[in-house]
Each structure stands twice: as structure tokens, then as C-alpha cells.
Write a structure and sequence with these properties.
Blueprint lengths: L2 H11 L3 E7 L9 E7 L2 E7 L12 H4 L1 H5 L9 E3 L9 E3 L2 H18 L4 E5 L11 H10 L3 E3 L5 H11 L15 E5 L3 H4 L1 H12 L3 E5 L5 H5 L2 E3 L6 H14 L5 H7 E2 L1 H9 L3 H8 L3 H13 L3 E5 L9 H15 L8 E3 L11 H5 L11 E3 L3 H6 L12 E5 L3 H4 L3 H8 L5 E6 L11 E4 L8 E3 L6 E5 L12 H11 L11 H8 L6 H7 L1 E3 L19 E2 L16 H6 L2 E4 L15 H7 L3 E4 L1 H6 L7 E6 L2 E9 L7 E4 L35 E6 L1
Parallel strand pairs: 6-15, 7-14, 8-9, 8-12, 9-10, 11-21, 12-13, 15-16, 16-17, 22-26, 23-25
Antiparallel strand pairs: 1-2, 2-3, 4-5, 4-17, 18-19, 19-20, 22-27, 23-26, 24-25, 24-27
Helix pairs in contact: 5-20, 6-15, 10-12, 10-13, 10-14, 10-15, 13-14
Length: about 675
């Protein structure tokens, strides 16, 4: 170390240190409470708060590296204006905020004068915060009269299925999994994507509980469970019906609970009796004895709990699959115990926090408003004026999302974003694939630089995020950017003057003592320990609703589309790489170094049939397109299924593409969600 560097390091250690309490903003059920250490004016460490019951001091590798993300040398810290054509390599020049805002407002006013529905917001869960998410943004787009975005890209199929069955996105409480005697971990790689649930599951395991993982992929979680059932993608509903068949014929039912608290049982019973173990096992690609034993284990364990996650609902029948699985604890009476039942999402418990109070839909007035599904953005941009999509989208404002990388059938998404007549503004931290195709890139703050309030879909605490440091460079929070855009558009409505603290209080709808939240950092909802022990579901009847729940097979499978399967015989799922979260963290070097490069996992049997070897570059393809990546011949893949780990930025791929080149834009049975894991492909040497 040279003398100057040594002196700098020594002086840095002399700076005062303080601790700020925050919350993880990312799309993960854990919603961790953060302990942020600031030295001088720089964050030097991010840890989990030991005092917060579900965080208990632990963070995933990704979020523990958060300072590396905030202080990344490639962070966008000034407004940027495009100076190249969209089909060329991207070139931008810095501009002032005043210049950027004035030009953006000028362009939006001109479009809105003809039809404000030609302007579309595009956002999702880059932050899960109530304030920096849709609060001020919603006000802006409602006042503008813009088109509305149907935010479906992750969880809406499962959410719709759960709500249809229980009346809301509600379930058992996280800590009580530690008391269960059997836990089915269904469609979840909990070690990678639900770390704090895994802590409780491990407690149960140490106390004698049996853990069973149901997942097409042999994940890190599956390896740690007592048993792994590697079913075919999209067959979860068939498995649930096969389990119901065994519950019925062996009389492993809680007849009293069903009679009191389940609606539509007779029709469900008749349907389940047609799904013999042989039929169900054949559909799922598992052994008959495996299915029978799973039913016996589930029926005879008390308490028995299911941790369902969103991987299994990213197929055509995902909504109905969630419905059928959610009915299992109703048939056995597992809900009578606080450690029994099911958890997919707890977000419905936060219903008192009304987003309408934040987004102010009344600002729209009686103007018409179309709804565009974010999962079909490729077609929406390429088919202007069509009967399906209505007026051409002429302007896009993208925030909290990276659609060029994450939306399905990405070749169409790219072509849509490359339209020279499309005006695109992107609020971002980095030059993502989407930012590369923007007309303006506006520098946004990270979680360490702004105030926010967070609910959760994995536990029942409200968390407060305090800003730890001032915004770097010229970065502004989402709320500040939309306030400034509103002012530039000439909007003088008083709601645009609300501060972030005022927005946070409005989000909590007077149900949480804000002073207490500021002092402690979190607030636990007062809820019953066993919410459905006496029924009292949130449905109109107060009963779990089984009416209409049925098995819906994949769009693309050997059974449902044999001609397509003859050309593309491999099912492909695209689970997230362990050290990324959707497309976030892909550019954090220490995390990308762990992942290495885009991988396709393939079973040795399928690799041998194609003359492929571990480590070689392969081409994965179907009628929609292709991408090249490195092959990993691995026991993580079952025969007939390949795992294309995502979601990498396209420009970091071997050929500037990623796995979403192959996914399609058809939607699920419920919730109008994408079918990322309902996809047939083949693989050859690349």
C-alpha cells in the first residue's frame, strides 16, 4: 500500500460510525430488517438485524453485498440523453435535470394532447416499497390519464388461485413451521429464495420432522430434504388430485372440517376419484409408490405444513394448480393446528394498507383507461392499433423493472423497444438492457438513499426503511422524479407536494403507530395464530372454495402438443440463478463471479443422446429463437427437462441473448400471468 492510500485508510477508520435501520426492498418473501453501518458518509456494511424475529441477524449473500451495488463504478449518477439510433450501439451524453425534465414533459404533453392512453408506465418489483413503488408514480399516471399496466409477471396466477380458494393471499405464520412434523416444500428453492423459512424448516427437521421437496429440479433445497419428487413441469395440479384420491379411498379426511368449512366438495371428490395413483404418477413422471407414500405421509403427520412458492405457477394451469394444492390442508383438517396449513403469500393480511390512498385513482376522472398486460409487452409494442391492444403505445416510462431482459419472448420485446417512434424514459441505477434502448435514463436512488415502508408476502411485519446516506451524484428517488415530472407537466394538485414521510403515513392507513415504527423499525400485525382453525376464510361464504378447481395441462408438453414435442422434446424451466434476483445483482462482479456464466443444466442421459459434453457451448432453440450458453451435465436436471438458469442481462450472454428468447407470451388460466416454465426446446452443439 502506498503512503497516500495508507493515510486515506487510516483517516477512514477515524471517521464516526452510526447504525441506520432499514428493510430489504427486493422481490423475496423474507423482507429482511437491515442493520446498516455508516462510517462518515459512506455505508460500509449491511447486515440482518438480530432483533427482528424472522431476520434473526441473517442475510442472503446478495443483499449482504448491497454496498457493492450502491457504490458500483458503473452506477448511473447523471441524467443521460440518447444520441444514437436505437438499432445502433447505444451512445448517451449527460444532460442537466432541468433539460431532461423539460424535454420529457414536452414530448409527453404532445402525445397526451392526442391520446394520453398512448403513454404506458412499465414497472414491477425492483423495489417492493409502498412509497418508492407506485405511490407518486401512480398519482402521476392517473393525473396524466395514461394506460394502466396489468402487473402480472411474477405471481398473479398463484395469487388469483389462492384468492379464489381462501378469499385472499393469506396463509399460516412463518415461525410455526418450526413446530410441524411434516413440511412439503413445493415449487421452492428455499435455501436460495426463502432463506429465513429454511431456518424454521431446519428447526423442525432437527426435532424429527420429515421434509419433502416437490420440484422438477434437484435444487440445493431438494438435496437437504429427506425426499425429492422430481415431477414434470406443470403437473402439480395432477399430483394434488392424485393425493386427494388417496386421501379419499383411505378415508384420511377430516369430514367434520370439510362439512363445516369447504364449499364445492362433492364435485372435487368426484374429480379426484378419477385421478388414480397410476394416472397421476404417469402424468407427473414420478413413481406410483412415491405418490402413495407422499399421500400417506401427508395424511398421517400432525401438524403437516406446505410451503408453496411461485415456481410451480409459471405454467398454463398455474392458478388452478395453486387452488388444488391449497385445498389439501382443508381436506385433512391441517388448518386446525397453528403449525399446519399452507403458506404461499401473506400479503393479503396487509389489506388495510390501501394503495388507492397512495395512487389516487380519482385523478383520472372519467377518462377512458385501457389495461395492457406487462407480460405481453412485446406484442403490445409490435401491433399498434390492433383490436387486441388498441392505440399504439408511443411513450414508455420504465421504473423498477428491466423488461428487455425479463419479459417473455424477448426478441419481440427488443424489436418493440427499438421502434424509433417510441419515446422511452428509464429510471435506473445501471445501464441495463432496457436502459440501453431508452431515449432518457434518469438516475434513481438505491434503498440505502431513500425512505420507504415495506409489507411482506412471507411474514406479517411492516418494516420501515430509513435512508442511510444522501443520494450519490445527481440520483433522485422515484418519488422525487415523479414530483418533478408532475411539476414540469404543469400539475399543481396538492397531492404532488406530499413528502415521502407523509406518503409513508398514508400507506399505513392509520393502523400503525408511525412513531413506534420509527423507533423499532417494524410492527407485527395482530393476527390469530391458527387463522382458519374454525374456518372463517375470507371468501363470501366464509368457507374454502373448491368450486371449479381443476387440472389444466401445459400449452407445450408431450401430452398436450405431441407434434411440437416431436421437434422440441425437452421441457425447459428457467429458475433464477442462486446469486441473482430476477435481473438484479447480475452486474455485481463478486456475485457474477460466483455464477460464472449462463448455464443450461441437462441430465446425462439427454446429453449422451445428443453427443454433448459437460462444459461445451450449446445452442438452445425452438421456433421462437435461440441462445447460446455453457452446458452443465448435472444431476440437478431430471431426464426430459433442462434448466436454463436466469435471468442474465442479455448483453452479458455469449450472443447477446438470454433464456427469455425462448419463452412465449401466452398466459395462465387464472391471473393472466406468463408461462415461463411451460416451454419446449431442443439443444445442440453451439
Amino acid at each position: 500500500m502506498n503512503v497516500h492510500a495508507a493515510a486515506t485508510a487510516e483517516s477512514a477508520t477515524d471517521l464516526p460510525t452510526r447504525v441506520v435501520h432499514g428493510a430489504c426492498p427486493h422481490d423475496c418473501p423474507d423482507t429482511c430488517a437491515l442493520r446498516i453501518t455508516v462510517q462518515g458518509e459512506r455505508v460500509v456494511k449491511v447486515q440482518g438485524r438480530a432483533e427482528h424475529p424472522s431476520t434473526h441477524g441473517a442475510l442472503c449473500t446478495k443483499v449482504s453485498r448491497y454496498p457493492e451495488r450502491t457504490y458500483h463504478p458503473e452506477r448511473v449518477l447523471r441524467p443521460l440523453k440518447r444520441v444514437s439510433a436505437k438499432h445502433e450501439a447505444p451512445r448517451f451524453e449527460p444532460v442537466s435535470w432541468s433539460e431532461a425534465l423539460a424535454d420529457i414533459a414536452l414530448r409527453l404533453r404532445a402525445i397526451a394532447a392526442q391520446d394520453p392512453q398512448a403513454i404506458l408506465p412499465y414497472s414491477y418489483a425492483g423495489t417492493m416499497g409502498l412509497v418508492q413503488g407506485e405511490a407518486m408514480a401512480g398519482r402521476f399516471f392517473n393525473r396524466l390519464g395514461a394506460s394502466r399496466l396489468d402487473r402480472t409477471i411474477c405471481a398473479s396466477a398463484g395469487g388469483a388461485g389462492l384468492a379464489a380458494t381462501y378469499g385472499g393471499k393469506v396463509g399460516m405464520h412463518l415461525p410455526f413451521f418450526a413446530e410441524a412434523k411434516l413440511i412439503l416444500i413445493w415449487g421452492s428453492n428455499s435455501i436460495a429464495s426463502n432463506l429465513h423459512f429454511w431456518t424454521y424448516a431446519n428447526q423442525a427437521k432437527r426435532q424429527g420432522a420429515k421434509l419433502i421437496c416437490i420440484d422438477p429440479r434437484r435444487t440445493e433445497t431438494a438435496e437437504k430434504c429427506h425426499q425429492h419428487l422430481a415431477l414434470l413441469p406443470g403437473t402439480d395440479g395432477a399430483l394434488a388430485l392424485g393425493l386427494m384420491h388417496e386421501l379419499i379411498v383411505n378415508d384420511w379426511l377430516d369430514h367434520d372440517y370439510i362439512a363445516r368449512h369447504v364449499e364445492g366438495w362433492e364435485a372435487l371428490r368426484e374429480q379426484a376419484l378419477a385421478w388414480t395413483p397410476e394416472r397421476s404418477a404417469a402424468e407427473c413422471g414420478i413413481g406410483v409408490d412415491e405418490l402413495r407414500q407422499l399421500a400417506r405421509d401427508y395424511a398421517q403427520a400432525r401438524p403437516a405444513a406446505i410451503r408453496l412458492n411461485y415456481g410451480m405457477q409459471r405454467v398454463r394451469g398455474g392458478g388452478n394448480a395453486v387452488r388444488l394444492i391449497a385445498l389439501l390442508p382443508c381436506l385433512t383438517g391441517a388448518w386446525r393446528d397453528r403449525a399446519g396449513g399452507l403458506l404461499l403469500s401473506s400479503s393479503g393480511w396487509f389489506a388495510p394498507y390501501k394503495k388507492a390512498d397512495l395512487e389516487r385513482p380519482e385523478l383520472r376522472g372519467d377518462r377512458p383507461s385501457r389495461l395492457i398486460n406487462m407480460s405481453t409487452i412485446g406484442d403490445a409494442l409490435l401491433h399498434p392499433g390492433s383490436a387486441e391492444f388498441g392505440p399504439a403505445v408511443r411513450a414508455l416510462i420504465v421504473y423498477n423493472s428491466n423488461p428487455v431482459a425479463v419479459a417473455p419472448e424477448s426478441a419481440k420485446v427488443v424489436r418493440g423497444f427499438q421502434r424509433e417512434d417510441l419515446f422511452t424514459v428509464v429510471l435506473e441505477h445501471f445501464m441495463t438492457d432496457t436502459a440501453d434502448l431508452a431515449d432518457y435514463v434518469l438516475p434513481a436512488t438505491t434503498q440505502l438513499e431513500h425512505l420507504d415502508v415495506h409489507t411482506s408476502y412471507g411474514h406479517t411485519d411492516v418494516l420501515l426503511n430509513q435512508p442511510a446516506v444522501a443520494p450519490l451524484g445527481e440520483a433522485r428517488s422515484n418519488t422525487d422524479i415523479f414530483r418533478a415530472l408532475a411539476a414540469a407537466m404543469g400539475y399543481t394538485d396538492p397531492c404532488f407536494a406530499d413528502s415521502d414521510a407523509e406518503l409513508a403515513r398514508q400507506a399505513l392507513a392509520d393502523t400503525v403507530d408511525f412513531a413506534q415504527l420509527q423507533e423499532q423499525g417494524w410492527f407485527k400485525l395482530p393476527l390469530p395464530e391458527a387463522p382458519f382453525a374454525q374456518g372463517q376464510y375470507l371468501t363470501p361464504s366464509g368457507k374454502a372454495d373448491a368450486r371449479g378447481a381443476t387440472y389444466v395441462p401445459n400449452y407445450e408438453s408431450a401430452a398436450s402438443s405431441p407434434e411440437l414435442a416431436s421437434r422440441y422434446p425437452l421441457a425447459m424451466i428457467s429458475p433464477p440463478a442462486r446469486n441473482f434476483l430476477n435481473s438484479s445483482f447480475v452486474n455485481v462482479k463478486s456475485l457474477r463471479d460466483i455464477e460464472g456464466e449462463q448455464l443450461l443444466e441437462m441430465h446425462a442421459q439427454d446429453a449422451a443422446a445428443r453427443g454433448l459434453a459437460d462444459g461445451q457451448v450449446v445452442r438452445v432453440f425452438n421456433d421462437r429463437g435461440s441462445y447460446r450458453c455453457r452446458l452443465a451435465v448435472s444431476a440437478r436436471a431430471r431426464p426430459g427437462v433442462v434448466n436454463g438458469l436466469g435471468v442474465w442481462w442479455r448483453k452479458l450472454g455469449l450472443d447477446g441473448r438470454n433464456v427469455n428468447e425462448l419463452t412465449h407470451q401466452r398466459l395462465t388460466d387464472l391471473g393472466q400471468a406468463p408461462c415461463f416454465y411451460d416451454c419446449l426446446v431442443d439443444v445442440q452443439a453451439g
